Amino acid sequence: MAYRGQPVPSTVVNISQVKISDGKSVDVVIPSGTGVEAGKFYVFSGFFGLVLKTIPAASNTAGETVALQIENCEYITDQIDTAKTFDLGSELYFNATTGKFTDTSATGLLLVGRVSAAKDANNVIQFIKYPQVITVGE
To answer: Are 48 and 132 in contact (CB under 8 A)?
Structure first.
């Protein structure tokens, strides 16, 4: 900050606004004819996150815009491939085609987080989401 009597000349530039949001969600367009369920994870417009609004496929005729929560925090879900083990500390991948999480790496899957509570008897896991996604094999 410049002040009177400063030994080195400087220029003060006031920036009124740079930050737009906290980056915890992003608005994405759900393709027409596609339905989504609130509380489920999806990939839209290159973003992986949790949809916050249910949109039935039949009513989505023009492509609806919804908020996709992309916050890096701990989540709980039953949206998993129940045949997998999901041990504590396992890396977590998302298959955008099936809409399921897996703990097995494969080409085309998205690396999305790490399991923080192993799969329980109800096929539920907890995980810590990584900052946006990395596609395996690319």
So the answer is: yes
- The parts of the chain modelled with pLDDT lower than 50 are none
The C-alpha atoms of residue 42 and residue 99 are separated, in whole angstroms, by 7
Q: What global pTM score does this model have? A: 0.80
Token readout for 59 is 């009513």
Tokens describing residue 111: 């690396």
* Alpha-carbon span 57 to 34, nearest angstrom: 5
Domain count, the chain: 2
In this structure, what is the dihedral angle of CA atoms 78, 80, 76, 30, given to the nearest 10 degrees? -90
For residue 87, the enclosing domain spans: 74-135
